[in-house]
């Protein structure tokens, strides 16, 4: 990926980014019972290395986007430990945040 700035004949172009091998999918939201869901195509499942019945993790990023990634047993263990620490030390952490 490259980022560059060029000035041609008085017209400036800034932060032109070149992405290679990126998957971009536009998916339609569908009603599933009383909820709304997204059906992932085969290419996305292969890319994530997941299948029917597997668990995925949706996280937010600093740019306001959501990220979808496969859930691994090690990550689940780490998240459970972090939640336990946050629960046990919530008052201390709140005081430190002041």
Task: Give the topology.
Layout: E1 3-8, E2 11-17, E3 29-32, E4 35-38, H1 42-48, E5 56-60, E6 66-70, H2 73-88, H3 90-97
Antiparallel strand pairs: 1-2, 3-4, 5-6
State the total count of DSSP E strands: 6
Give the helix proportion (percent range): 25-40%
Helical/strand content category: alpha+beta
| Helical run tally | 3
- Largest sheet, described in full? 2 strands, antiparallel
Low-confidence stretches: 1-19
Averaged pLDDT:
78
- Could you say which overall geometry the principal axes of the C-alpha atoms support? elongated
Radius of gyration: 21 Å
Strand content: 25-35%
Features of this protein?
two-stranded antiparallel ribbon; 98 residues; two-stranded antiparallel sheet
Describe the structure.
The protein has 98 residues and is of the alpha+beta class. The chain has one domain. It has three helices and six strands. A two-stranded antiparallel ribbon has the order 1-2. It is elongated and about 45 Å long. Mean pLDDT is 78; it is low at 1-19.
Task: Give the structure's gist in a few sentences.
This protein has helices spanning about 40-50, 75-90, 90-95, and strands at about 5-10, 10-15, 30, 35-40, 55-60, 65-70. By secondary structure, the chain is an alpha+beta fold. The strands form three sheets. The chain has a two-stranded antiparallel ribbon. Strands 3-4 form a two-stranded antiparallel sheet. It has a two-stranded antiparallel ribbon with strand order 5-6.
């Amino acid at each position: 990926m490259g980022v560059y700035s060029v000035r041609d004949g008085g017209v400036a172009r800034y932060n032109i980014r070149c992405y290679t091998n990126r998957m971009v999918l536009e998916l339609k939201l569908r009603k599933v019972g009383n909820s709304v869901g997204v059906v992932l195509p085969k290419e996305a499942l292969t890319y994530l290395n997941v299948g029917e019945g597997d668990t995925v993790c949706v996280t937010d990023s600093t740019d306001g986007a959501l990220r979808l990634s496969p859930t691994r047993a090690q990550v689940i263990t780490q998240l459970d430990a972090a939640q336990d620490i946050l629960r046990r030390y919530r008052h201390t952490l709140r005081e430190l945040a002041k």
